[in-house]
Amino acid sequence: MKKILLFSILTLSLIACNNDDNNNTQNPTEETTTMKLKEFRGITTSKYFYHENGFVDSIAVIGGGMIQNNIYKKFIYDSQNNLQTIEILVKSITEATIAHVKETFEYNNLNQISTKTSINLILNSTSTTNFTYNSEGYLNNSGQTFFNGNLIQAGTIMYTFDDKKNPFYEMHPVAYNRINITNKNNQILSKTETETLETINWTYNQNGYPVSFQKSPILPDDVDYAEYIYY
Q1: Residue span of the structural domain in which 27 resides
Q2: Which CATH number characterizes residue 197's domain?
Q3: Share of the chain above pLDDT 70, in %
């Protein structure tokens, strides 16, 4: 159940970054984007709205099934299109506020996010996460290996990706993708040296964007099937 709620809040399943994007600009036109994700339909339905800079402006996650809460996220950028603040509201089906969190970001001289501060406005508590990076601009996490914008190994688990577009990668600035390990492409296989853990079959539209996926085998508390709707 915790895994489902986390997936709903972040809507970040199957989502890491590209070494080619490791520069000082956050302009989404670096990589041509012809379609923007409007809805992601899985266990819940996530709806996406966009800022004039091309990045996501707000997200509404509408609960369904075992998830009865609604989650709203608002993204604030500076004049250089750097993400400055995310405000997160979690509400019950009666619209009572369950959680209210404000996240702020600080950057280093390479325009990478160095610090995330999370303020719980209900509990009046604050937590801080610091980030460091390797020479290629990926998170300096032990046991993780990246290639061409994708996390290809974490510990003993290896991941294989196709070469198609991941709409979640395109909706955020590079720096934010990096701290969330948002993959540039779409995962098709996870395995160890001795066994296959999961395969994912994708269906794409004529522009190379995913319209659905199906996982096998179906794992407990996981999203095994989802659909993508575009503007």
Answers
A1: 2-230
A2: 2.40.128.720
A3: 84
